[in-house]
Specification:
The chain is of the alpha+beta class and 623 residues long. The chain folds into three domains: 179 residues, Rossmann fold (3-Layer(aba) Sandwich); 112 residues, Immunoglobulins (Immunoglobulin-like, Sandwich), CATH 2.60.40; 159 residues, Jelly Rolls. Helix content is 17%, strand content 33%. The chain has eleven helices and 30 strands.
Length: 623
């Protein structure tokens, strides 16, 4: 009996010794952290040895790149190790600034991000929090979270949940059970790693990341005061404040638990940030929701808040805006570039009930190449069509007339200022060439419902007349002769909705035979709650000709793109996006098929000539 109790006693002591040596202190349910500061209180990222192991080292284009792994901490008695890439210029003079990069969902740390930063004069650490095998890292030590798991593959539920399970820290609802919390701890350890490097100036460290990495960038910057500048992309916007969350058809996600929003939601971390910060993302992003960003970022304590917003796109930016990220860091960390302040935007009536005037006051006005104003009254953020107006220069500022497009809805207005890019900046390989300008964005102004002139809402059958600028579109792979595409949400605008019984028509000119695909998204992102939705395509083959040819499709010509779309397309009324494509991947009999089957036969390089995209026939319903 004595021996039995002795064994039990020793086991209990052993368990206490393991847990007391953990990186996080033990807490009771009554001690659950309920603020951001309380959540990270007691965690010292410099306390435990990092135990860095360099797994591989190489040099590319003047950059030293290391694949490495280090210890995040000990949780539930087991060490957590994270891998990643670290790079820096092979020739440095004195201490240089550093960046920590946080990858997005489903991705992994990328060597190219480290190389890009190093070629611009930074040391850079890219953390592989998702746990996928690193590029060139087969057979080498990778990320191993140990007794906990912050990956999507092994523990995806806990980006939203704080409830306990066998892979969480606490055995009761707690923010310490969140995957986000664990990754932020890894980020804090990554900052400690950077500060220990001989070539790094420990007082000049910035953070950047895309999508889930954008949220992590905001969380890390709010939790770790050693971050001195941040640039989140397509994330870090926070949950919907009550006014937006209560709108019908706003497109925002439902709220999570109260404790989650007190401790894990981006909005709480934004309140802790007082360093220069740039938001990078598009107007129609599903993850970095624009209206939420503008609302929640008002909570920032920073005196240097900037935006670089790409029009019309979802979850990506064009080179003119991507390059703004590095220029922002060059100002606030390298201190060898002057990044313009966020331009002032004013809206006023030109004449009562006639039009409004947007006035933009950009800094460094002598370098301004162009100014574009975007406006919309669509409350659904994700499928909102932004109308474009080119501003004109007037007495040291810029102006654009905004027609009143009705008086019953809130009007959203923002402006992009494009500056001449005179500084030398290294680019990502996918950019092909350096952009000639870089874009920054104003605050977004909201004009509340009031008197208005509804005449501009009269239906217009021509959707796009000449395709000169594609300013109401976004284009993907445009230089690819096969996989080129162009998309617009203009088809959702009340002015351009298709009449009942009409056909969608476009003229094309090509001296060679070809094929075009129209792609439609019906009720995208649930813009019309309670209605059916789907994705459809229609194929049109045409002969070569020196003359313009008329291509025409009806509702019944569209087929479901894949098995998720169950019903035929019945109306133009709820179409939220239109695409024109050279190739398309569809599902036929359960198999993925790329159309046209013989791609080489239908190569169509630039320039592609289109005009008069329009509706023909049918009738508009009476109002």
């Amino acid at each position: 009996m004595f021996k039995l109790f002795g064994v039990v006693f020793l086991c209990a002591v052993f368990f206490v010794e393991i847990t007391s040596a953990d990186s996080l202190k033990l807490i009771d349910e009554k001690d659950i952290p309920k603020t951001v500061r309380a959540l990270y209180d007691g965690f010292d990222p410099d306390k435990e040895p990092l135990q860095v192991k360099v797994l591989k080292e190489l040099e590319q284009d003047g950059v030293i790149i290391q694949m490495l792994a280090f210890t995040v901490g000990k949780f539930k008695g087991v060490k957590s190790r994270i891998s990643g890439f670290y790079g820096y210029p092979n020739k440095t003079k004195g201490k240089i600034p550093a960046l920590i990069q946080l990858h997005g969902g489903g991705q992994r740390a990328e060597m190219r991000s480290v190389k890009y930063a190093a070629q611009n004069g930074y040391a850079c650490l890219a953390l592989n929090w998702g746990g996928r095998t690193l590029e060139g890292g087969e057979g080498l030590e990778g990320t191993d979270w140990g007794a906990v798991d912050a990956t999507q593959k092994g523990h995806n539920s806990h980006y939203a949940s704080l409830m306990p399970d066998p892979l969480t820290i606490d055995q009761f609802e707690s923010p310490r059970n969140s995957n986000w919390f664990l990754i932020v701890l890894a980020g804090m350890r990554g900052v400690s790693f950077l500060q220990n490097q001989d070539e790094v100036d420990e007082k000049r460290i910035g953070a950047f990341g895309h999508s889930m990495g954008g949220k992590l960038t905001v969380m890390l910057t709010g939790a770790d005061k050693r971050i001195k500048a941040a640039a989140p992309s397509c994330g870090g916007c926070g949950a919907a404040p009550k006014p937006i969350g209560q709108w019908a058809s706003s497109g925002v996600r439902p709220l999570k638990s109260p404790l989650y929003h007190q401790t894990i939601d981006d909005a709480q971390y934004l309140k802790e940030i007082n360093v220069p910060i740039l938001y990078l993302g598009p107007t129609n992003d599903f993850n970095g929701i624009l209206d939420l960003m503008y609302a929640n970022w008002k909570k920032l304590k920073s005196n240097e808040v900037a935006y670089s917003v790409t029009p019309h796109m979802n979850h990506r930016s064009i080179p003119e805006h991507v390059i703004s990220c590095m220029l922002f860091f060059n100002d606030h960390l390298k201190r060898d570039f002057k990044f313009p302040q966020t331009p002032k935007l004013e809206i006023d009536y030109k004449e009562p009930n006639q039009a409004k005037v947007a006035r933009i006051f950009p800094e460094m006005e002598e370098l301004v190449e162009r100014v574009e104003v975007f406006y919309s009254d669509d409350p659904h953020i994700l499928t909102r069509f932004w109308r474009t107006v080119r501003a004109r220069k007037v007495n040291g500022h810029w102006e654009a007339d905004i027609p009143l497009i009705g008086g019953m809805k809130t009007l959203y207005v923002l402006a992009n200022i494009y500056y001449k890019l005179e500084a030398r900046v290294e680019i990502y390989p996918w950019m092909n060439s350096s952009p000639k300008t870089f874009g920054i964005t104003s605050e977004m102004e909201l004009l509340r419902p009031g008197g208005g002139n509804n005449k501009s809402r009269s239906p217009v059958r021509v959707i796009e007349a000449n395709f000169d600028s594609y300013e109401d579109w976004y284009r993907l792979e445009w230089k690819n002769p096969n996989w080129w595409s162009a998309y617009t949400r203009k088809i959702k605008d009340p002015q351009h909705i298709g009449p009942v019984g009409s056909r969608l028509v476009m003229d094309v000119k090509s001296d060679k035979a070809g094929v075009i695909f129209f792609e439609l998204k019906d009720n995208g992102w649930n813009a019309f709650p309670g209605k059916g939705k789907g994705s459809y395509y229609s194929r049109i083959d045409f002969d070569g000709s020196d003359d313009w040819q008329k291509l025409s499709v009806s509702l019944r010509d569209f087929k479901p793109i894949d098995g998720r779309t169950k019903l035929p397309l019945m109306t133009w009324e709820r179409v939220t996006e239109l695409g024109i494509r050279g190739r398309i991947a569809v599902e036929i009999n359960g198999e993925r098929v790329e159309l046209p089957e013989t791609a080489s036969k239908y190569r169509w390089p630039e320039p592609r000539e289109f005009k008069n995209l329009r509706w023909e026939g049918g009738k508009y319903p009476s109002l």
